[in-house]
Write a structure and sequence with these properties.
The protein is 45% helix and 16% strand. The chain has one domain: 3-Layer(aba) Sandwich (Rossmann fold), CATH 3.40.50. It contains 7 helices and 7 strands. Helix 1 crosses helix 7, helix 3 runs parallel beside helix 4 and helix 4 packs parallel to helix 5. With 238 residues, it is of the alpha/beta class. The radius of gyration is 17 Å and the shape is globular. Strands 3-2-1-4-5-6-7 form a 7-stranded parallel sheet, with helices on both faces. Bound molecules: NADP nicotinamide-adenine-dinucleotide phosphate.
């Protein structure tokens, strides 16, 4: 797929799914603006991408802070002048039983997995409306479709993303802006090792499959659109 000249902002770019998204999208020609808190990991990723002839720019941002989100979009505006694609990938998982779960942890999850996504969508939309073009992809989770013990707060945050996406998609389409959501099952990253230590790595979805899904979504003509993709782990053949 040719993403040449596309400006793509990926949050949670330092590792896991976000890191793979950045390498995959840049290999298709996109210029990736990569946001996360860990500067060293972003710098290493930029060097890796540029070493392969790609274009990448690091943005250090803590999405729990509104001012960091606003400055992240200011950087994109000033450096690139527009934003073609936003991938709201950053997320955190804090897992534990309902009776022991602290409200501080509940707030932390909602802050990153929902509040930050809302503000990022709002900022991206303002830029995209001016261009009458854009695509926002939000990362939900298959955990929404099947309840898992000890994941109540995480699942609630990810279910909210589906509602947010559907409403925003209806609102944004008159501006020629698409808003989609992906619901992955267990992907081979640090997060799943914490959420599901019982799962063998060999049954997990490789992050590259999420990147392929995103590239497919971005490759459709402007006469069609995929609203939601649920990509699940395949049962291991016996
Ligand atoms: N792995 C799975 O099985 C799975 C399944 C379904 C959905 N998902 C969703 O997919 C997304 C990516 O997950 P992952 O598995 O790749 O997780 P991960 O490996 O733990 O990576 C999370 C990313 O989010 C960033 N992040 C966390 N808190 C942040 C903050 N306050 N400010 C800025 N960035 C922050 C991290 O960067 P820094 O620490 O450097 O800031 C990191 O780059 C998440 O939204 C997750 O809920 C994952």
């Amino acid at each position: 797929m040719d993403l040449e000249d596309k400006i793509v902002l990926v949050t949670g770019a330092s590792k896991g799914i976000g890191k793979d998204l950045c390498t995959s999208l840049s290999s298709q020609g996109a210029t990736v603006a990569m946001a996360a808190r860990t500067k060293k990991l972003l710098d290493d990723l930029k060097a890796e991408i540029e070493g392969k002839g790609g274009k990448a720019h690091c943005i250090e941002a803590d999405l729990s802070r509104d001012e960091h989100i606003l400055s992240m979009f200011k950087i994109v505006r000033e450096r690139f002048g527009r934003l073609d694609v936003l991938i709201n990938n950053a997320g955190i998982g804090i897992f534990g039983s309902m009776v022991d779960f602290s409200m501080q942890d509940f707030d932390k999850i909602m802050q990153i997995n929902l509040r930050a996504v809302f503000l990022c969508c709002q900022q991206a939309l303002k830029m995209m409306i001016k261009e009458k073009n854009g695509h926002i992809i939000n990362m939900s989770s298959a955990a929404c479709l099947k309840g898992y013990a000890n994941q109540t707060a995480y699942t609630a945050s990810k279910q909210a993303i589906i509602g947010l996406t559907r409403s925003l998609a209806a609102e944004a389409q008159e501006h020629n802006i698409s808003v989609s959501v992906i619901l992955p099952g267990g992907v081979d990253t640090d997060m799943i090792s914490i959420a599901r230590p019982d799962l063998d790595k060999s049954v997990l979805i490789p992050p590259s499959d999420i990147s392929k899904t995103v590239i497919y979504m971005l490759g459709l003509s402007d006469r069609s659109m995929v609203d939601e993709i649920f990509i699940r782990r395949r049962a291991k053949p016996v």
